[in-house]
Design brief:
This protein is an alpha/beta fold. It has one domain: SGNH hydrolase (Rossmann fold), CATH 3.40.50.1110. The chain contains nine helices and five strands, in the order H-E-H-H-E-H-E-H-H-E-H-E-H-H. The protein has a five-stranded parallel β-sheet, sandwiched between helices. Helix 7 links the parallel strand 4 and strand 5. The longest helix has 20 residues. It is globular and about 50 Å long.
Length: 226
């Protein structure tokens, strides 16, 4: 059967468009592993920094969807392995963030155990990602500067203890060539601005989460554009 000239022209135009532009692209699938700081405790889920990051990345022109954020308040690396990692893997992510460890320190998990669990999490998350550079790590903030912070220190030096855990995080990320965004110093601004602290006197407010996202966004965008 021969095509009419109009149908032939239409067929050529469709084929040309397909060749030039390819098939429609699916959104980048973004998944999170974390604790209260990733779930947005003290604000709302929509005001959490991962949700803000996804919206900011979309506004910058990247087609991205936050497909899984099973983060929970109070969860340690062990909890993340048991209860978050399966959901993370099931989500089939293309991009991921990890911010974990504060509850390990609060609950007295020793540094060696924390490191072992962190290594397992990092390696399992990387195994689930098609591009092994697209895991962005975020450090633990310094909650000692909040009004209720001292209640969770157990008489220990909170800042020093968290800095020690952050050193482990930085070292393990560096071994794997991963980018790290450090929110420790910016979190200390909560000492001088009550507007950065949630009503519970411990967690960040929406304003503080937005400050973290502002730091995280450039690194995330660069990772996704490379």
């Amino acid at each position: 059967m021969r095509l009419s000239s109009s149908k032939l022209t239409a067929t050529i135009l469709i084929a040309t468009a397909s060749a030039l532009f390819g098939q429609p692209q699916t959104p980048i699938r973004y998944a999170v592993i974390g604790d209260s700081y990733s779930s947005g405790e003290g604000a709302s889920p929509e005001e959490s920094w991962p949700a803000l990051l996804a919206r900011h990345l979309r506004a910058s022109g990247l087609d991205i969807a936050l497909v899984a954020n099973p983060s929970r308040t109070g969860w340690t690396t062990r909890d993340a392995i048991d209860s978050e990692l399966p959901a993370f893997i099931k989500a089939k992510p293309d991009f991921a963030t990890l911010q974990i460890g504060v509850n390990d320190w609060v609950q007295g998990v020793d540094a060696a155990t924390f490191q072992k669990n962190l290594v397992f999490l990092l390696d399992q998350m990387l195994a689930a990602l098609p591009d092994k550079t697209r895991l962005l790590v975020v450090t633990i903030p310094d909650f000692s500067v909040t009004p209720a912070g001292a209640s969770f220190g157990g008489g220990r030096d909170i800042s020093t203890g968290l800095a020690g855990f952050n050193a482990i995080i930085l070292n393990e990320a560096k071994k794997r060539g991963l980018k790290v965004v450090d929110v420790f110093e910016v979190s200390r601004h909560m000492r001088d601005d009550t507007g950065l602290i949630a009503e519970d006197g411990l967690h960040p407010s929406a304003k503080e989460y937005a400050a973290w996202e502002k730091l995280i966004f450039p690194t995330a965008r660069k990772l996704l554009q490379e």
